[in-house]
Structures are given as C-alpha cells and as structure tokens.
Design brief:
It is a single chain. With 151 residues, the protein is of the alpha+beta class. The protein has one domain (3-149): Muramoyl-pentapeptide Carboxypeptidase, domain 2 (2-Layer Sandwich). It is built from six helices and four strands, in the order ααααββααββ. α3 crosses α6. It is globular and about 40 Å long.
C-alpha cells in the first residue's frame, strides 16, 4: 500500500463505519434544504452546544486551552489541534477531524469546529470583540481557523 492509499484508508476510517452512512445521509438532506450559509450557522450552533457539553475546565493560558482541547479530542478520537500565537491573532489548526471525512469536505462542515473553538475561548474568558473565523484549509486533513479582532 502506497502512502497516498494509506492516507485515504486512514481518512475513511476516521469516522466510525457504523455512523458514516448516517452522517452522510444527514448532510445530504441538510444540503437539499438549507443554503451553505445556513448550514455553516447551524453547524456553528451544534459546535457551541458540543463545547458547552464538553467544557475544558479552568484554562489560564493559551497553552492550557490547547492542552485541554487535545486531551478532549484524543478521548473522542477527533484528531488534534495546534495553536500559533501572533501579536494580532491566534491561528488554530485542527488535524484529521472526522466530520470533514463524513461530510465529504462540505464547505459548511468547518462551522462545527469554528463553533467549538469560539465557545471554548469564550469559556476561557476571551475578550469581547474577538471571534473565531474559518480560514482556507491547508489540506483536506488540516482545517484552519483564526481567533482575531472582529471589525
């Protein structure tokens, strides 16, 4: 098995086979009824609800948030994240999220992780005027977000 075949095999296995068909069918049904913007908003709300149900606990630093998020992602087998801190933003990379595999890289699927990270940063005391936005993904296996000031 070549490296590309191995990567594709791992992608397919990222979402449990018992749920893959169900999640894809739901995504297709949602897509038939809602616009991409409506779906992104819906998945953002679902992500915020997930974060509310899976609190990271007390996090005093960005490193605490990253560590707690990765502990949770590991427990639920949802890949991992890396944060990069810059003077004007925090870049968030999420590696190997199964939702993107399950929903065939639907453009609105990143709304879920956007909502999760937005809620977790708010729970950690994020200042008002900051928001998590979706960025162009590095690849289908690396989803990108940025926490920055909203203008």
């Amino acid at each position: 098995m070549g490296s590309q075949e191995l990567l594709e095999h791992l992608r397919v296995r990222a979402c449990s086979r018992q749920w893959l068909g169900v999640v894809r069918a739901m995504g297709q049904e949602f897509s038939a009824e809602l616009s991409d913007d409506e779906l992104r908003a819906l998945f953002g709300r679902i992500g915020r609800r997930f974060a509310d149900n899976h609190s990271l606990g007390d996090c005093l630093t960005l490193q605490d948030v990253e560590r707690a998020a990765n502990d949770l992602w590991d427990r639920v087998e949802w890949g991992s994240c890396r944060f990069g801190e810059y003077p004007d933003r925090v870049e968030i990379e999420h590696l190997a999220p199964p939702i993107n595999v399950a929903l065939d890289l639907a453009p609105w699927a990143d709304g879920f992780l956007q909502g999760v990270y937005q809620s977790w940063f708010q729970q950690s005391g994020m200042l008002s005027g900051l928001a998590v936005r979706t960025c162009t993904p590095r690849s289908e296996d690396v989803r990108c977000f940025v926490l920055s000031r909203v203008f």
